[in-house]
Amino acid sequence: TLFRLPGLTPMVQAMHAAADFADIGTLPRGYATPETRFDGADDFDHVIDIRDFAFYPDFQRTSMIDFFLRRLGVEPQIIPSYLKRNAWLATRIEPQPSAWPDGYILVCPRSSTPLRDMPDEIHDCILRQVAAIGPSVTQGNVPPELSGEVAHAPECATLEDLCALVRNASWVISTDTGMVHLADAFEVPCLAFFPTHHPEWRVRDYPRCVPIPLRSALPPGLEFARGPRDHAIAQRAWFPDGADLDWLTRVVSGCLSCL
């Protein structure tokens, strides 16, 4: 049985439904942290408690999949790398026709936390470069000068729509967020930027992901901003040479040269 808190986003709930690995129950919001033992725990022979896992010190300094395997009582080193990927999802989501031109490049500038969002200048620089290559789609705002060349993807209403957006792309260029993991699920090449985490903690087992670590003064593995200053520090990591974005142009060009 999987117990989860109420009010999870529809996408998270849909992902749980697609996995279809357990009965699902709901815990009251007051049980959000391990300090409160939830009613009914004694009815199970074994309880794996990962409430508030993002704040566990060992989650913040290791591969996500290894952390969860250890919590499940499995030694990570006995599991081959290919089984630590997201391929299970591809067989559970029916392919859908693309709503965009063939071969489009998908740019994903936003994360679940603003701490990992792409700055607008970075996003716009990437869009200018990919628009010169071919059809391009972004989940972010399209600059006026690119309105006829780059399409804006509206927020997806269903998990199937979101998966289709990724599955039908030729490349995904993204900040550190769920779209990187969906790209792995559907074998789509991905260029991923990591402003707060070591890439090996997130994409070590993804053979088609090109990870770019950004040098940040934040503590490695920080999941949530402690205040406005952290957002400013995270944003600066995208500008190692100040306003000069030649480094970004070289990275994007190198990845997309095979198109």
Kindly describe this structure.
The chain is an alpha/beta fold. It is built from eight helices and eight strands; from the N terminus they run E-H-E-H-E-H-E-E-H-E-H-E-H-E-H-H. The strands form two sheets. The chain has a six-stranded parallel β-sheet, with helices on both faces. It has a two-stranded parallel sheet with strand order 1-2. The protein is globular, with a radius of gyration of 19 Å.
What distinguishing features does this structure have?
six-stranded parallel sheet, alpha/beta, globular, single chain, two-stranded parallel ribbon, 259 residues
- Report the end-to-end length measured between terminal Cα atoms: 45 Å
Cα shape: globular
Q: Largest sheet, if any?
A: 6 strands, parallel
* Low-pLDDT ranges: none
**What strand order characterises the main sheet?**
5-4-3-6-7-8
Order of helices and strands: EHEHEHEEHEHEHEHH
Helix share bin: 25-40%
Whole-number radius of gyration? 19 Å
| Secondary structure tally: strands | 8
Overall average pLDDT = 94
**Total DSSP helices:** 8
* Portion in beta strands: 5-15%
- Structural class of the helices, strands and pairings? alpha/beta
List the helices and strands and how they pair.
Layout: E1 2-4, H1 10-19, E2 24-26, H2 64-71, E3 105-108, H3 120-131, E4 136-138, E5 150-152, H4 159-167, E6 171-175, H5 178-185, E7 190-194, H6 200-203, E8 209-213, H7 228-236, H8 246-256
Parallel strand pairs: 1-2, 3-4, 3-6, 4-5, 6-7, 7-8
Helix pairs in contact: 3-8
